[in-house]
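Here comes just one.
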Amino acid sequence: MKRFAKLNMPVTDIKGLKTKKKSFMSLGTILRMLPALPKMPYYARQSAKEYGMRYKSELLQRLFENIIGPDYSATALVFTFATLASGDGGYPEGGSLSMALRMAKKFDILGGKIRYGMRVNTVSVRNGIADGVVVDGELLQSEAVIVTRDTLSAIDDLFDFPIREPWTERMRKVTKPLLNTFICLGIEVDLEGLPEKMGFVPMRPLMCGGKEEQVIKICNYAGYEGYAPKGCTAVTSAIIGDTYDYSKARKEDGTYEIEKEKLAKDFIKILSEKLPQTAEKTAVWDVATPLTYERYLGSFKGSWMTVATKEYKMEYYPSKPENIRNLYFAGQRLRAPGGLPVALDSGRRAVQFLCKDFGMVFGQSEKPPA
């Protein structure tokens, strides 16, 4: 853990970029990372489940299998432990909504304009050049377009013709999307004396999307100010698994809402059996399925990360296609397993490519393309 805790995600500049302040990895940073490198192939060749099975304890086996999911490479498991052990595994203050609002405020201060409630239908491409986006039949022209929607869905759905290049074909072929069903409860009891994260084996499995869930994991937000009224607690649970087709079928046969309600009630009962103080105390509940994620994000099957299996070869997909000029991609799908760090770095790279193509200096205040 001590070795892996010194590994950092490199944030560097693209070649040929004019920049106000160069970003590079120092020699000291590289040297601190070297001791961990020889151990990486050992973990990369096995899944989290296979690594867990090396232990005799069934409790440890379940623990390692369920921390990040059984199919992930064990490398992700070790990185998770190392990140937490180093004290660098924080979260955005106020949650994701507050983080998004802070980003929007900063964008506004820098002169950007956000048009809310407008869904992009297609990216306009004429003569091999991206020149804007189409919203409700209206072309909003621009000199360049940065697509931040899930790349895997964007390359098929955001263009008049799907983008067919070697890297897009590879992305379609090898990507294993990470999906989940998210359960949220508002409970009229203070759970502050309990751990922030808990996992347990219920007396009977929870049926979710036609599949049995043998281990229940919950997040207890009793200690988080503003998440629930005084004396109450917000509780969430992410049930990992691909239930997209099941949810879609329930939507089509008219039983989607009934299934969501049944899942919520079954979960509430299982939680009350484990924590009797929560019995009959659930004031509100909500369930988000992969269809919910798809509706909000426009992502492939509602997925929000990529499962980096032991067979997956780490690579960074291009930030720009070969056959369309002034078009750039950013987002978590450009490098597995994804997540916020990759999304941020890919956004930075996309802007750097734009600056390079338009002869601009990265990091310098000047008017960008409209």
Remarks:
- The chain is about 35% helix and 15% strand.
